[in-house]
Specification:
The structure holds two protein chains of two kinds.
Chain A: H1 7-16, H2 21-34, E1 38-45, E2 50-57, E3 67-75, E4 80-81, H3 82-90, E5 98-104, E6 110-117
Parallel strand pairs in A: 3-5
Antiparallel strand pairs in A: 1-2, 2-3, 5-6
Helix pairs in contact in A: 1-2
Chain B: E1 5-10, E2 13-16, H1 19-29, E3 34-37, E4 50-54, H2 57-65, E5 69-73, H3 83-113, H4 121-141, H5 160-164, E6 198-199, H6 202-207, H7 217-231, E7 235-238, E8 246-249, E9 260-265, E10 271-272, H8 274-286, E11 290-297, E12 302-310
Parallel strand pairs in B: 1-5, 9-11
Antiparallel strand pairs in B: 1-2, 2-4, 3-4, 5-6, 7-8, 8-9, 11-12
The chains are: A alpha+beta, B alpha+beta.
């Protein structure tokens, strides 16, 4: 892992949160290499005892600028809670309207779910 | 001030037996319940059901807490009628039967006086054939055995209604022979010997031992979440079709699709497995709904919501 091109960016937070390092490493690589996100940076999220990832998600619509998204990685085998999800929101500044939870499994499959605070109607 | 609606409780479940009450609950209070009544002679009834309307416990709790309805222990609301009351009831029943028989006879005599009325040529021909067949069968069977005198195994009674059911013989009221329909009312409201005692609060109903909901944290959480969504104007239905506690509709479920599937989380720190987010999120998005994680805080009695959708990538 130390020889991986992503390692220098992540090393500090990987050392700070070793328990969630695997998920962070996997999601960071997925976003930068597979999803082709740009301006990706890592942010510390002490309330969730892990690092989160902030970046611009490219849209197929070229007229619109890529939107800034925040991704909180977690492993499929972790146990989280509603208060954990809320803590992710409240510890971010400015308070985002939505966050993405990236769930990773051991075979490197990664899925992303959008979590919004409050009752948010689905798109028609 | 209108009278509170009576919720008839049986085995800790609340039922509504009056069609007008069902209408009021649905149109004024956006409480839908589900119709559960079936008819004994129709098989495979699973789409169109009738009275009674069964309420979710959360619905009943909300209606009682808001003073819209009261709980009634239906079995103990009936007392033994006095002989005079019972005689009046039987006389009414007798009059109804006589009226029905008179109407049937009147109709029969009209039809007898004009037998060809409303019969097509085809029907007449078929009837003639049937009558001929019957006549032939009779002449063939006649010489074989003299069945006429053998005693019938079931002595036919002049009064089948009295003989059949173990009704106490009452010389003052004898039901007429002939066929008529026995009407059994859905609710007991009109019976003289029905005196429902209203349990106006959940505490009183709990002390009376007829209603215990909500008694656990999970039940309190469900009632709290249901009330909060109801106060926001949503209509709720059972959520089993989409793996949640409730389906949340923006208006009457007969007019709208639900926008959300709601699941109730008992406490802020209750364990939530990431797999639940995946399962709920993906199913909801696949059915054009969002999933609501409804988090109950038992200390503050506050509900917080998180909406889950598939991100659209990954």
């Amino acid at each position: 892992m130390q020889n991986h091109p992503s390692y220098p960016v992540l090393s500090q937070l990987l050392e700070k949160y070793p328990a969630t390092g695997g998920a962070l490493f996997q999601v960071y690589n997925d976003l930068t290499l597979a999803q082709k996100w740009i301006d990706v940076e890592v942010i510390d999220l002490p309330a969730c005892k892990r690092a989160a990832i902030k970046g611009k998600r490219p849209t197929p619509d070229t007229d619109r600028a890529p939107s800034i998204c925040i991704v909180v990685p977690c492993s499929l085998s972790e146990s989280i809670s509603a208060s954990w999800l809320r803590a992710a929101f409240t510890s971010l500044d400015p308070l985002p309207s939505e966050i993405y939870v990236a769930i990773t499994s051991e075979d490197t499959s990664t899925v992303y779910y959008k979590i919004s605070q409050g009752i948010v109607k689905p798109p028609v | 001030m209108t009278q509170p609606i009576l919720l008839r409780v049986s085995n800790f479940k609340a039922y509504v037996w009056d069609v007008d009450d069902i209408n009021i609950l649905r149109s004024h209070h956006h409480i839908c319940g589900i119709l559960t009544g079936t008819l004994p002679h129709l098989s495979s009834q699973n789409i169109f059901l009738g009275l009674p309307l069964q309420l979710m416990p959360e619905e009943a709790v909300l209606l009682v807490e808001n003073g819209i309805a009261v709980l009634v222990d239906d079995p103990s609301a009936h007392y033994a009628p006095s002989p005079s009351t019972l005689r009046l009831w039987k006389e009414a029943r007798l009059n109804d039967a006589r009226q029905q028989i008179a109407l049937t006879e009147e109709k029969g005599s009209i039809e007898a006086s004009n037998p060809d009325r409303a019969m097509s040529e085809n029907a007449k021909r078929k009837r003639k054939e049937r009558e001929e067949r019957r006549a032939r069968a009779k002449t063939n069977a006649a010489p074989s055995a003299p069945v006429e005198d053998s005693p019938s195994p079931h002595p036919t009674s002049e009064n089948p209604s009295q003989a059949a059911i173990g009704e106490p013989l009452d010389s003052t009221v004898v039901m007429p022979s002939g066929s008529y329909t026995v009407n059994i009312p859905a609710s007991s409201s009109k019976l003289e010997w029905y005196a429902p005692h209203s349990n106006v609060s959940l505490t009183i109903a709990r002390e009376a031992g007829i209603w215990l909901h909500p008694s656990t944290l999970q039940e309190r959480a469900r009632c709290g979440v249901f009330r909060d969504l109801w106060e926001k104007g949503y209509y709720m239905g059972g959520g089993i079709k989409f793996g949640g506690e409730y389906l949340v509709y923006p208006g009457d479920p007969l007019r709208y699709h639900s926008h959300f599937v709601a699941s109730v989380i008992e406490a802020p720190d209750a364990a939530l497995r990431p797999m639940e987010i995946v399962a709920h999120g993906r199913l909801g998005t696949g059915t054009k709904k969002a999933h609501l994680l409804c988090e109950w805080n038992d200390e503050t009695q506050v509900v917080s919501y998180l909406s889950v959708e598939w991100a659209g990538f990954g």
